[in-house]
Amino acid sequence: MAASKDKDPSLKDKNELTTAWCDESTRLLLDKYEQYLPLIGPMKRFKCKKSMWIQISNDILTELNIVRSSTQCENRYKTILKRKMQSVRSNQQSGAKRTRVDFEEELNKIKAIDDSLEPEVMQGPGKIIEKQQENIAMDPKVTKSQKAPKKMSISETLLRIQKDKEKKRERRHTEKLDILRSFMRIFSNDTIDSNRDSTDNDTIDLHQDSTTDNDTIDLNQDSSSD
């Protein structure tokens, strides 16, 4: 009965092979990443990194007969980067024992073509300054020229608010001037029309007076004739 409960050694080896990452599979992953990274983007072999991870998963299965999903490949790569960052941070501390960086050679090759591989670590006076960089270099939806929004200081924020207020004030002043010009234009047109009507009425009155005078002259002439 005890023998029946023992696990098949070959099955155990197979499970370890499919769940744990060995150096061989990790190096293949990094080599493929270095190979495929320049091929990501519009009009290239891979439209996005997701497609690249799928191809790397297929390569590992084909070359090593190890099953790895695209998500597992991506997470393994992130783990390697995280461990390197921890090693670099540890090595920057004074008096600390130097920590070995796993897969340093492969990562240096990738860094040569992708400078956003890792955060920049600079040692300042008595402290370590770490500048985080997001790995967005080859994403077709995000270009390298795009940067994270800069955090404004309080004085910069107040200055920006003041500028916005001035712009709004100028806009309101301009709108008021436009309205005033419209009223003046309407008033001017009404005045011109009124003067024109008055002139026309005077002309009619003159014409009527002339007609009346002519009629009077005619009547006087008729009376003289009689």
TrEMBL record:
Annotated segments matching region Disordered: 195-226
Domain Myb-like: 13-81
Bias-annotated ranges (Polar residues): 211-226
Organism superkingdom: Eukaryota
Basic and acidic residues bias (residue ranges): 195-210
Pfam families (UniProt xref): Myb_DNA-bind_4 (PF13837)
Protein name: Uncharacterized protein LOC112452613 isoform X1
Gene encoding the protein: LOC112452613
